[in-house]
Amino acid sequence: MILPKMLTFQLALLHALLLERSASDPRQSRRHPSPSPSHSSSSSTMMMTTTTTSTTPVTRIYSSPYGSRVIPQDKTIWSAVEEQAVKRPSETAYVCGVTDQVRTFKMVHEHATAIAASLLAQGVVLLHSFNCIKYPIVFFALNRLGAVCTPSSPLFTPQELLDQIQTAKASAVITHSMLADAALAAAEMAGIPDDRCFTIGACKSKKTGKPLLSTQSMVERNLPLTLTTPVDPNAVVCVPFSSGTTGKPKGVEITGRALYANAIHIDEVENGMPCALGMLPFFHILAMCLFHIAMYKGCSVVVLPRFEPTMFLRAVSKYQIPRLMLAPPLMMFLAHSPEVAKYDLSATTSVISGGAPLGKELEQAVTKRLNVQIGQGYGMTELTGGVCYVEWDNLRGGSVGRLTPNTELRIKSLETDEDLPPNTPGELLFRTPQQMRGYLDNPEATMATITEDGFVRTGDVGYIDEDGFLFIVDRVKELIKYKGHQVAPAELEDVLNQHPQIADSCCVRGYDAKTGEEVPKAYVALRPGSAKAQTLTADAVVTYVAERVAPFKRVRQVEFIDAIPRSLAGKILRKQLQAREQFVHAPRSRL
C-alpha cells in the first residue's frame, strides 16, 4: 500500500543519538557512492590489526580510535535511574512537548518502582503505546524486574499484535488507553486474561466493562517491591522486532548489559547536552537508546507523540533543542516549509539525518536556512543502536562517522569473503559489547548473522578510509546487478532526489520484458504544487540520470507514484515496491 504524502511526513519521527538499521530491516545511514581520497586532519588515528599465515588470507580488524572502555558486569540501566534520582532529584527527566507536563528524575524512580511492584512476575510483556512521558517509565519498571519488554508499533492491527505476542511468547500486555481496542482484541485472541492487561490511561475491559489496572493506579497504591533474586545484567530485557522491510520480522534479543554498554559508549564521546527531542517512535531501538543514554547522562527529553509541524517547531523553539535527529522527509520540511520561518530555531546547531539517503541539494538547503551542521549516523537493531559517532569538529562529507569505543569492524569482499583494506567497499561486520545475543527462537538466522568469532553481519556495503571514517554504499541484498555490474539504488536515489521536480524516489530491480535481465528501475514521487512537475516525463527522468552517472548505472525504467512508502523510522519500504515487479512484465519507458 502506498502511503499518502502527509502520512509519509508523519511517519518520519526520527530523533535519536544515532540512526539505526536492522540486519533484517531498519538500516539508516548516509549513503556514499564510492571511495574518495582520504584526508589527514583527523584528531586520532584508526587502529587496524592484521594477521596472516602462509595458508590463510589476511585478517583485518579495524578498531575504534577511542579505544576500549570498561563495561561494569553488575549494572543495567536501572543503576542509572537510581543514581540520577539521588544526583539530580528535582531536575526534569521528561517533559511532554504538547502539555508541558513534567517527570523529574526522582519521580521516574518512584513511579517505576511502584509500577514494577504491581507487575511482579509478569514475564514477557508487550508494550503498545505511542510516545508519552510514561512510556520510558514503564520500560524502566520492566527493566527493574528483569522482565522482558517486547515493544510494538502503535499502528499495528490486532492480527499484527497477535503475531508479535505469539512470537515473543508474551503473557501480559500494557497498552495506551487510546490504542486499547487493537491491543485488547489481540490479547483476547492470544488467551491473555484481563488481569494481565494493563493500561496507560483509564480504560475498561471490553468483556466485563470493569476498569483495567492502569499505571496511574499502580503509582497511587504504591505497593512495596520485593525481589528475591537480583536482576542478571546478561539476561534479555528487550525484544524489539525488525520491521520486515527485507524479510520476515524477527525478534532481536537485547540484554540489560548491552543497553548499558551503548549508553557508556556514547557518553564517552558525546559532550553534555541539556536536552534532546524524543520524537522517534519509542518502540524503535534508537528511541530506546535515546532515553537510556539520556538517563545515563542526566539529560532531559522533550517527548512528542508524533510529527505535526506546529507542535514540532514549538517544542524545538521553546525548549531550545541543540541537536535534531531527523529523516529526509523532515529535512525537506525544514528546507522548504514557510512555517519554519515563524519560529526561533537559533538554539539548534546541528542535525543528524538518517533513515534514507540525504541528497546534497537538500543538505545544503537545510544548512543554509538554519545555519547548522549536518551529519550522518549508522547503527542497527542487532547492534543495539549506533556504532559510529559523528565528530562535529571534524566532519567528513558523506561519512557516518568513526567507530564508538569497544567497537571492531571487518569489511568482507562480496565475492571472496576476504577481509578488505581501507577504501575498498565490502560487507560490514561489527563486534561490540552492545550487540544482540541472537534472534529469538531462531538459531538458523542467528548463525547466519553472527560469525563464529562473534561479528555481526549487517548486510550493508561500505568502506573505511585511512583515518577511520566509515562510508555506507548500500545494502547487499538491494544491489542491482546489471550486465555484470553492481548498481547501488541509494546512489541513483541521491541523483534523482536532486531533481527540482522530484520529491522522493526509490530504485529497485526491474526486469527486461524480453530478456528477463535485471535493470535499474526508479519509482518517482513528484514535488506537490509544482506545475512543472506535472509535465515531467519518464524519458526526461531517464535522461537526467544518464547525464550524471556511468552508463551501466543508468535508470532503465521509470514509474510515477503518489508517495514513496516509508516506515515509522523514515526507512524506505523497498520491499513493497520490489514486490510490484514481476520477472516479466510489460515495458515501461525502457531503453
From TrEMBL:
Residues 1-23 form the signal peptide. Residues 23-54 are annotated as: Disordered. The keyword tRNA-binding does not apply. Coiled coil: none annotated. One of its GO terms (molecular function) is CoA-ligase activity. InterPro entries: AMP-bd_C (IPR025110), AMP-bd_C_sf (IPR045851), AMP-binding_CS (IPR020845), AMP-dep_synth/lig_dom (IPR000873), ANL_N_sf (IPR042099). Residues 491-571 form the AMP-binding enzyme C-terminal domain. PROSITE patterns: AMP_BINDING. Belongs to the ATP-dependent AMP-binding enzyme family. PANTHER family: AMP-BINDING DOMAIN-CONTAINING PROTEIN-RELATED (PTHR24096:SF149), LONG-CHAIN-FATTY-ACID--COA LIGASE (PTHR24096). This is 4-coumarate--CoA ligase. It comes from Lagenidium giganteum.
